[in-house]
Amino acid sequence: MLNEQLKRKRVKSIMIDNIEYFDVQDIKDNHPDFKVDVSKIMYVNDIALVKAEGVHVKTEFDKIIKQVFPKKD
Asked: Backbone phi, then psi, for 8, in 5-degree steps?
């Protein structure tokens, strides 16, 4: 199901050996409602990719934590 959500949101993807991988940077930059499991990231030619099962929809808890602990610039 998440695979279809990622496609509907037009997350950049690539097929490698008949397996679909999604662009981690595109998810981070353009899809704030998703989070990536960093242990599932693989690199191909210095591009971070992840399978759909390594991407999750952010929960309310995730959103609150991000507000409590904002990123430092």
From this structure: -60, -35
pTM of the model: 0.84
Query: 């695979």: which residue's tokens?
Result: 3
Q: Say if residues 27 and 36 touch (Cβ distance below 8 Å).
A: yes
Q: Is 48 within 8 Å of 23 (Cβ atoms)?
A: yes
Q: What residues are paired with 35 via a beta bridge?
A: 56
Taking the C-alpha atoms of residue 49 and residue 22, their distance in angstroms, rounded to an integer, is: 5
Element (H, E) at 56: strand 55-57
Cα distance from N-terminal residue to C-terminal residue, the chain = 35
Gap between the Cα atoms of 14 and 38, Å rounded: 18
Query: Does pLDDT of 41 surpass 90?
Result: yes
